[in-house]
Amino acid sequence: MSKAKKTAVTPTREENFPEWYQQVIKAADMAENSPVRGCMVIKPWGYGIWEAIHRDLDRRIKETGHENCYFPLFIPLSFLEKEAAHVEGFAKEMAVVTHHRLVAEDGKLVPSGKLEEPLVVRPTSETIIGDAFSRWIQSYRDLPMLVNQWANVVRWEMRPRIFLRTAEFLWQEGHTAHANAEEAMEETLRMLEVYRTMSEEVLAMPVIVGEKPAHERFPGADKTYSIEAMMQDGKALQAGTSHFLGQHFSKAQNIRFQTAQGGEEFCYTTSWGVSTRLIGGVIMSHADDNGLRVPPRIAPKQIVFVPITRAEGDEQLINDYLAPLVKELQAQRYAGEPISVHVDRRPLAPPDKRWEWIKKGAPIICEVGPRDVAGGNLAMIRRDAEELKGKIISREEFVAGAVATLEGIQNTLFEQASAALKARTIRAETLDEFVAIFADDDTASRKFVRAKWSGDAATLAKLDELKVTIRNIPFDQDGAMGKCILSGQPADQEVIFAKSY
Amino acid sequence: MSKAKKTAVTPTREENFPEWYQQVIKAADMAENSPVRGCMVIKPWGYGIWEAIHRDLDRRIKETGHENCYFPLFIPLSFLEKEAAHVEGFAKEMAVVTHHRLVAEDGKLVPSGKLEEPLVVRPTSETIIGDAFSRWIQSYRDLPMLVNQWANVVRWEMRPRIFLRTAEFLWQEGHTAHANAEEAMEETLRMLEVYRTMSEEVLAMPVIVGEKPAHERFPGADKTYSIEAMMQDGKALQAGTSHFLGQHFSKAQNIRFQTAQGGEEFCYTTSWGVSTRLIGGVIMSHADDNGLRVPPRIAPKQIVFVPITRAEGDEQLINDYLAPLVKELQAQRYAGEPISVHVDRRPLAPPDKRWEWIKKGAPIICEVGPRDVAGGNLAMIRRDAEELKGKIISREEFVAGAVATLEGIQNTLFEQASAALKARTIRAETLDEFVAIFADDDTASRKFVRAKWSGDAATLAKLDELKVTIRNIPFDQDGAMGKCILSGQPADQEVIFAKSY
Fold first, then answer.
1. 10 Å Cβ neighbour count for A316?
2. What is the 3-state secondary structure of A189-251?
3. Quick one: CA dihedral B12, B14, B19, B22, positive or negative?
4. ipTM above 0.90, yes or no
5. Beta carbons of A60 and A54 less than 8 angstroms apart
6. DSSP letter string, B376-400
7. Which residues of A touch B158 (CB under 8 A)?
8. What is the model's pLDDT at position B2?
9. What whole-number percentage of chain B has pLDDT above 90?
10. What's CA A305's distance to the chain center, in Å?
């Protein structure tokens, strides 16, 4: 047995994946639990990743014709009561505001000024935005109504987990209204496709695109679609959803319009969202036992320089060498944005700084000492390389290849994750096989199973027992007739079964 | 008496300024009151202005070395109880979360799951961020700690007013910790200067920079500084504040650090913020009786084209003419960003569209009909012009001058606001004069008064009686000895007195 390789993060993925996840977040200094139950503090490196996701996705949302708005944080209880299915699904664990004042009593603060009608902190905004739509939409000329908001939402989580499931999280929620079902369905699928491309091109996270089975629909939706990603422990992460809401919300909230023919109809609405949960997906897709690896397109800093100073005068020498180099890099654009360059001048030992950036997952880390200055070189570490050692490269070559190197790292991460998804998605033909696959609940060998499913609700008990879920019904179907893996009944639809977050 | 000119907004500023304000917001379709008491819905045109402010200010905040984070929405009561002065100032009207669940009872939802410790929705985040600082800061090497967050905050307002005073509003709040008082004071003043330049250069809103008198300090602050703007009704708007918090919060929250010498000391902290209130300031600084006028640097759309189509085929003709024109404009940068161009192709009458954009205050509106296409022209309306009529200009001249025209409009708005501030800021030497000035409480003649003030708290009753406030103690002082305008006592400090929002 070979001696275990020393890693920057303990435990390793294989040893204890959930604990590794927490330790990567700590090592990369991305976020932490706050003293407020279930709420996190997102620190600069984690928030910088969210800003990059925000910037990219916001552009895509605007390019598809949506405009940003901002709606109230609070929702009156009466709004929730209007849509029964929605209430059933959502109106359980949420923060309820009952008072609007505090008064001091014996040195303590106590709530006072009881509200006539309690308010909930929005868990999602269909009801409050639907109320606005009912006022804004009069005629077919007002349609489609295409809005989006970036906001915080709160769902009181009993078992919070940083980024993946927190009481408060940040997200965008798109809400649209249309004159007919076809256009609303087109919109639903258009935004699902926006999520797919953003996830694959920007987060380097391959996803399976499909429809959620009926029992996994958003409360009140006619149809829910999702993108599902595979984490390195073989579990699924629902990374984004898009809902075709039909006329449920428009009828509950009276969102009507006058048609071109002079009649009156209820709108068809949609909603769709992704959240800071994506950051958890990025970590579990790309981080390794030395910490995070951030896809260059969302790295807050893409190239980090660590000066190696030993003697007096080195600092000045290296600064002079780096100044024009940094400018040449910043003048180049990668994926439409100027390359983000950082020189780490903190008074710490260079190896400590190098390891800090490795753990944070900066895509390219360059060490520059007096000898490099003399030779016109630098020592480049690519965070996607097997060996995290500096490779000497001439300054000219580095500058000329910087964009290609970033693109190369982006591609490596996507290809590695794609290869894992492919290798670990298998087919099963019999129930025994199926049970055996999910009995092996090990980080390294856990699988996604693609198999036929009849859609019969009676089959779900078996899944609960195995702690397996149906992730979605992928769009790419083989179309062949077969047998339901659970019931043995004839079935033509393939679904993805997996353990999940 | 001349016949009143017809205006797009009724009433006019002179007729009823507060009502005019509401009507401008409506005419420009910027925001509206929501069914949730005191909370507004910010619509695309209003939110687009906020996005532009956000983009510009965020860049300035990062350039001065701050990093963005995100802290919890909720604050435990015990955190507020730690800082007595802060509680006194803030812990009054705020939203209190007391339950974390809803249950259905007779078709109604009722709060359930009482929290052991109530949570308040943050009115500001000194206490929750201070808690994080107490964990993050160990040594002088961790200082300065420079963070900022963009967030929503809630202060239960008894008399809400859209943008100016709403229960929920959006803002940024910077929070920093330093090793000594000098550095913390430098930071406080540096961010005040960032606010001044942003306000003047970007919002085209001239401000008076100075220190708040003691009785107007932020709860818990050693010193509070502000930028104060004059609205077109002669009232003051506090547009941004920066606070030197000394060691009050660090002592209450145990934010300590080990010094370079091995000792232990409490940090000196600062905080500073601006909010969506700035949008109210922009409206009351620049809008006229035909609606909003948006300074080009924060206009969501800087140039709007309105095609004039009468006959069949016109649409195609104009589209072909506009396509390369729009590209040439978008390829140019104004204030570092590509020029934002919009073609309004909605099937509405061209004059209606023109007036809509006038009311929204798009800086440049261009009408293009078949005759313009034939002549290679367009009809340009500058929103800062006296006459809102299209002026025929050749396409080449328009493209070549677009950046200069935008800059010209930006400058006009700033100069007009500056001229008003200058003309309406007067000096007073005697109390009788002072009383007479403020007795004239008319939109057109209301004034800022610059006069000596002794700082004696006993003088404040007189101000309350007159409904006048001291806005700040401007940095530019004449230094001369004089007499306090209120008490007649010797005083060397000049202050700005005004009615205010």
1. 10
2. HHHHHHHHHHHHHHCCCCCEEEECCHHHCCCCCCEEEEEEEECCCCCEEEEEEEEEEECHHHH
3. positive
4. yes
5. no
6. TEEEEEETTSSS-S-EEEEHHHHHH
7. none
8. 47
9. 91
10. 29
- A28 neighbors A359 (Cβ within 8 angstroms): yes
Contact list in A for residue B132 (CB cut-off 8 A) is 34, 41
Mean pLDDT of chain B: 95
Residue contact B97–A121, C-beta within 8 A: yes
Contact residues on chain A for B76, CB-CB shorter than 8 A: 35-36
Q: Give the dihedral of Cα atoms B147, A299, A353, B65; nearest 10 deg.
A: -30
Work out the average pLDDT over B310-334: 95
* Cβ separation A96–B100 shorter than 8 A: yes
The mean pLDDT value for A340-364 works out to 96
CB contact under 8 A, A121 and B120: no
| CA–CA separation, A219 and A460 (whole Å) | 19
Burial call B175-201: b when 16+ CB within 10 Å, e when fewer: bbbbbeeebbbebbbebbbbbbebbbb
Residues paired with residue B176 on neighbouring β-strands, in sequence order? B146, B270
Q: How far is CA B296 from CA A167, B44, B301, B361, in A?
A: 40, 17, 8, 9
Count Cβ–Cβ pairs < 8 Å, chain A vs chain B.
186
Please report which confidence band the pLDDT of residue A4 belongs to, taking 50, 70 and 90 as the band edges.
low
Shortest Cα–Cα distance, B81 to chain A (Å): 7
Residue of B nearest to A132 (CA): B34
In the numeric block, the tokens 């308010």 are attached to A119
pLDDT tens, position by position, A87-104? 666 668 899 999 999 988
Using a CB-CB cut-off of 8 Å, the residues of chain B touching A132 are: 34, 41
What does DSSP say about strands B40-42 and B31-33: parallel, antiparallel, or unpaired?
A: antiparallel
Distance from CA of B98 to the nearest CA of A (A): 6
Q: How far apart are CA A39 and CA A154, in angstroms?
A: 9
| Three-class SS of A354-385 | HHHHHHHCCCEEEEECHHHHHHCEEEEEECCC
Interface contact A87-B104, CB threshold 8 A: yes
Q: Residue B104 and residue A91: Cβ atoms within 8 Å?
A: yes
A100, A103, A106, best to mutate vs chain B, most B CBs in 10 Å: A100
DSSP string, A416-483: HHHHHHHHTEEE--SHHHHHHHHH---TTT--EEEEE----GGGHHHHHHHT-EE--EES------EE
> Cβ separation of A74 and B43 shorter than 8 Å?
no
List the B473-474 sheet strands across, edge first.
B67-68, B145-154, B168-178, B268-275, B236-246, B223-230, B208-211, B473-474
Tens of pLDDT, residues B4-39: 678 999 999 999 999 999 999 999 999 999 999 899
Residue B73 has its nearest CB partner, among A35, A156, A168, at A168
The number of angstroms, rounded, from the C-alpha of B324 to the middle of its chain's C-alpha atoms is 36
Nearest partner of A33 among A167, A134, A171, judged by Cα? A167
Answer yes or no: do A104 and B87 touch at CB < 8 A: yes
Q: What count of residues does chain B have?
A: 501
Average pLDDT over residues A292-305: 98
Q: How high is the pLDDT of residue B96?
A: 97
Q: Which of B35, B92, B100 sits opposite A101 (nearest CB)?
A: B92
- State which amino acid sits at residue A9: V
Distance from CA of B406 to the nearest CA of A (A): 24
CA dist B482 and B324 (Å) reads: 65
Closest residue of chain B to A88, computed from CA coordinates: B104
* Minimal Cβ distance to A72: which of B34, B47, B94: B34
Q: Do B109 and A80 touch (CB under 8 A)?
A: yes
pTM above 0.95, yes or no: yes
Q: Are the C-beta atoms of A102 and A111 separated by less than 8 Å?
A: yes
Question: Which amino acid is present at B165?
Answer: R
Identify which of A77, A94, A131 has the shortest CB distance to residue B35: A131
Mean pLDDT of B206-220: 96
